Amino acid sequence: MKLETLDAGERDQAATKVYKEFVAAQGAGIGQQERTKGTQQLWDFANSSQGETLEPGVAMQKVQEEAETTLGMLAFDAFPRFLKSKYSKAVMEDLKTGSNPNEVAALEGAINTSESKQPGDADEWLNMFVSTAESFPACIVISDMTIPGAPMVYINGEFTKTTGYTKEEAVGRNCRFLQGPETEPESIAVIRNTLSKGQDCHVKLTNYRKNGEKFQNLLSMKPVFDGDNIYRYVIGVQFEILEDKGLKKRLVQLDKLLRLLPSRLNLKSKASAQARGALAAKTTGEANTMIAAKEQILSAGEQREEKEAAGSGARPKQKFKKKKKAAGGVAQADNYDGTIFAFTKIMWLQDAVNTLRSMLMDQAGFMSFDAFLKQCGSQLSQTHLRFWVEAQQILMCQGPQQVQAARQLHMRMWKNSLFYCTTNEIVIGNLNRTGWPPLIQEMGRWQEMSLYFLAFDCFTRYMESPQSREFVTALQLREANGEQLPVKTVSVGLDPDSPSYWMDMLKAMSETLRIGLVVSDMFVPGCPLAYLNEGFAAQTGYGKENIGRNSKFLQGPMTEGYMVEEIVESLRHADPLFCKLQNHKPDGTVYQQCLCLTPVFNVDGEYKYQIGCQVDYDPNNPETPMFIMELERVVRNLPQTLTGETPKAMPTRTQELEDFLASITAGGTGAGPGGLTATPPSGSAPSGGGHPRPGASWTPA
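The structure corresponding to this sequence follows.
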């Protein structure tokens, strides 16, 4: 404004000086954070290049344009905050002293009108910012960080002009779709690292237009936190790099714009966004313990938003899906029978011997297994089952009744399994003079051997049969009716109406495993770990205190960057993945991790969870073959939907898993990182009630 009071000659001279000082100003924000070599070279080039030649008559126009841009940004963000501060009141009181009353009244009226137009929350702020951003001479995109995947919720016209993508094609997607084959991995790493920490990002990278044409893009991203310190938005400012004489000026303009953008709002977010933001992975890398109460927090946020909307007369947006209703208007719960069977199957096969023992103690369980053996089993397996049952009848008796039962069952001369399945020498004519206690004790040892044979040869096949599915379903109903049963499903004692029912079953199943299992919630920003089992702590050294963190805490200097990229792409596209990479334990020890990722979808096909099963792949550990076998068994049986329905792609996925495991188990024991045999080790028969690990073979002493 001072320039406008000067005469023409002085004004042009002063304007030229002001504009040159503006262009010569160093951009304090650009390139000062973590940056790639290309970003640094760009900034060095701009600093060493000559400024543009400017005619004196044009200088005033340039200064006015820059002043209007700056004033617009100040009016949008800084001035509204000033009006709400104590300084605004002090200025008004000062103006009332010695000023024209009419002018003061007009100013107060203007301020009151301005205050009435101020945003009430972060969402309203976004709407106001969008109207301003349309006039910016740079590509502007805004991503909502409380929505998983951080999709863009706004792009301006300049973005469409530069990239060729319309708003309909771009909004709702993550801006990574601009990347392509020649996009620099180091630039992507900087973007991912800085944004996960809530830091500014300035990076030069190769992007692609809609028509496939490459262009050099200088991307600056500004994180924005709301009044509750929730990571709400990221404002992306980008422009195509054209290395001409005007580059220095454009970089300075960019820096001025970025410094005018807010990094924190004095506004709260709507209740649903508050809930999602409260659950997000923390930018500090600390565990977010609130993830344990996810369902309650989301539900409370929905209820608060509905209440607020009802009070204001507005119609709330539907944030969460309701349960489907039948014709009678009663809410229908999701059918989890498939998941219950899949998780129960994993749990039972983890301890096949004890599970089969308990199952045979239940009449319905015995009948189901017996029917399977009669239909699909051999004569040998049927004989071992009869022997186990008759031996159990004897062993359950006490004192004289036990001897009487043994004598009576040994009197049968035709197809007596008590003779076929033991080495006891019994003379029928001398039954009354036989010393039964040592024979009964030996029979107990052989009964245990028959159980092992049935468990590892027949029970695994039984769990693949329709009979097992029918038995588990019937067993679940009996549990729901309050029966106390010797064998249990994964859902026993859990509330089927709980919103965390699936997660509760997963937790119960996972705690029976020796391998590591984690689950990431893909509905929560930052994909924090919703749960990890004790097996994960044993395999990696990281315990349950890490629930609520993003799993990248396992990474370190020796972690292969290309493998991290492969994992990230798998997470983004909801693809299964089988890989081996180097990770780090809490003490810095580097280990090879065998990792299998399994995506899980809800009934509507939405990407809900990602389950990660992992093993410390140490060829020198004699238990590693058992861990690999367990990993294969678990991943093969994990359902990819919340309801347990099997996707059509399951056979392909199973073959990929087998090929992957074959590649890491080939080469023989102790052959180095690539060599491992999956042959179970031999052991000795258990004493008392003990038993070897599932999958191990043993011979009687």
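The domain at 3-83+119-269 is CATH 3.30.450.20 (Beta-Lactamase).
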